[in-house]
Amino acid sequence: MSIRVDRINKRFNDFIAVDNVSLDLPEGQLTALLGPSGSGKTTLLRIIAGLEQADSGHIEFHGQDQTHEHVSDRGVGFVFQHYALFKHMTVFENVAYGLTVKPRRERPSKEAIRKKVMNLLELVQLDWTAHRYPAQLSGGQRQRIALARALAVEPKVLLLDEPFGALDAKVRAELRRWLRRLHDEIHVTSVFVTHDQEEALEVSDRVVVMNNGRVEQEGTPEEVYDHPANPFVYRFLGNVNLFHARVHEGTATIGDLSVPVPEHHDSQEQDALAYIRPHEIEVLASNESGDAIHAIVKSILVIGPSVRLELQTEHSKELIQAEMSKHQFRGLGLLQGDEAWLRPMQSKVFLQEDEAPAVSGS
Ligand SMILES: Nc1ncnc2c1ncn2[C@@H]1O[C@H](COP(=O)(O)OP(=O)(O)OP(=O)(O)O)[C@@H](O)[C@H]1O
Q: Which residue ranges does the record assign to the ABC transporter domain (predicted)?
């Protein structure tokens, strides 16, 4: 079931929570709505669900207008961060709940319900918990049961609002891998709200990056990570170093280094910032090519198999971070306080006028 979001607007008093958002979410895909706190992700999800009415715009499921359909008629399944299971019911009864409360004519037989619930519990790999109560499960297990419960009524679309937000980092990381595998099996069109970039990039087929109620960029995880459309997306999707640059007729210069920027071929002597991720900086112990960026090693941090260097250059306000493998680092033989030279392996140059305000919130 594909989802179309067509020019949706939503205000809360004077505050614009969703600002003319249009999206096409393809059938069978897992789409992440990613953005900082307050960017309008949950409001948009609730409008798709029918839990919130938009001021204007339309929601379609598979070409059919849902704008005026009640939430109970839209066929959506939900999993929320704190979507508590019924405490007084066993796991089995919780998952069966949506089926047992169906009107008699639509309700499956007891045996059919039993089969379906046990199949779902196998799917979420918790069939052995059927007779337990929620209090006897871990937080991660409870969320998997909440997902099984949402799937029991065969929703047309599955909406997840920070489903793993309350869990600790390790369980969260396990569950997102598990969700990805589960989605590969069931292929229900799903929309997933998160403010965690890693989670969005790892789990989803498509990422929609939101900010101030608007869509900044949408695309596959690779597209948004490798080709951020603007400075906001660049900063939001991971650590990034900013170098002061000067752009003139398709060439950016950072100190002695020149980088081709054909997209800015008609710029004349403009101030710009070059965005370079820590793993995209090559660190050299000497300036053989003669045009690398001069720096001083300020700190060396070994993190498991990789090494993060902090370096000072006159072309950046902040310390520059560079990441490499331990093996590469040993080859350089650099010590704290040494001179080093930097070359970007990949960069993106934005003119100063394109600059967005810094990311605030989470
Ligand atoms: N019922 C409401 N009444 C007034 N303002 C609201 C209401 N619901 C949301 N808002 C405001 O709309 C903005 C967007 O909220 P929303 O929950 O959609 O953001 P979000 O991106 O999901 O953030 P978070 O990650 O913090 O949940 C916020 O500034 C919020 O305070």
A: 3-237
Residue 111's φ and ψ, nearest 5 degrees, are -65, -40
Domain extent for 61? 3-235
Report the separation in Å between the CA atom of 252 and the middle of ligand 1, taken as the mean of its atom positions: 40
The contacts of residue 348 (CB under 8 Å, 6+ apart) are: 227, 228, 234, 274, 275
44 band by pLDDT with thresholds 50, 70 and 90: very high
For residues 341 and 287, membership in a common domain is answered with yes
Of 172, 203, 235, the one marking the end of a domain is 235
- The tens digit of pLDDT for each residue in 68-107 reads 888 888 889 888 877 678 999 999 999 999 899 888 888 8
Q: What digits encode the pLDDT tens for the residues 244-275?
A: 999 999 999 998 899 999 999 999 999 999 99
Which atom, in ligand 1's list, is nearest to the CA of 33? 21
The pLDDT, as a whole number, for residue 207 is 96
Question: Does ligand 1 have an atom closer than 6 angstroms to the CB of 163?
Answer: no
CATH (domain of 83): 3.40.50.300
Centre of ligand 1 to C-alpha 214, Å, is: 13
pLDDT greater than 70 at residue 357: no
Ligand 1 contact via 35 beta carbon (within 6 Å): yes
Instruction: Put the strands of the sheet holding 339-344 in their side by side order.
Output: 281-284, 339-344, 293-303, 306-312, 320-325
Distance of alpha carbon 27 from alpha carbon 186, whole angstroms: 12
**Same domain, residue pair 122 and 229:** yes
Same domain, 23 and 140: yes
39 CB less than 6 Å from ligand 1?
A: yes
Domain boundary among 211, 235, 259: 235
Residues in the chain: 362
